Amino acid sequence: xxxxxxxxxxxxxxxxxxxxxxxxxxxxxxxxxxxxxxxxxxxxxxxxxxxxxxxxxxxxxxxxxxxxxxxxxxxxxxxxxxxxxxxxxxxxxxxxxxxxxxxxxxxxxxxxxxxxxxxxxxxxxxxxxxxxxxxxxxxxxxxxxxxxxxxxxxxxxxxxxxxxxxxxxxxxxxxxxxxxxxxxxxxxxxxxxxxxxxxxxxxxxxxxxxxxxxxxxxxxxxxxxx
Length: 226
Prior knowledge:
With about 230 residues, the protein is an alpha/beta fold. It is built from nine helices and twelve strands. The longest helix has 19 residues, at about 190-210.
């Protein structure tokens, strides 16, 4: 089972370290960003499953960053207690708001609720675009864009690329890949998987001149990050 990834965006080292320790103990993968600008750069290369967002950030603050996060549930974790602030943030894209100081059990419960809801939402409502390096994966049209060029993917190609982009540092075994995309692409089998990936590689190579998908012999596939 692939671990869920949570991105902590907070410049307070003490709070960030505490959150990271709690989340790691619960079995989550953790990413860290210490400013809004750093978070944007990170999100261009990988899409976490959920974001914990502080508001008081250097440079690009939390209120400015929130509308620029697309397709990822965001829980705001802030010391601001005014109802107006909470309402404004919820209307501008936050899925939940937790006031500091907070109990870690409450935070973990809210995270689980949002991750469950994320799995149940229709894909088009959940996300518009997933990005990896110069690739933009558009969920509504099953297309990939790079540098103004576009290519259309089949349902199977799209499901494979989306899973790989969401887990850029992991080798995904063939059996797990087939299991994770089975709901969307029941026609994809172990014997046809190589053909789908070969076709996907050709489309990406024609679009960017790069080979993004790496086969790990005897195990599975991963997105090429270097």
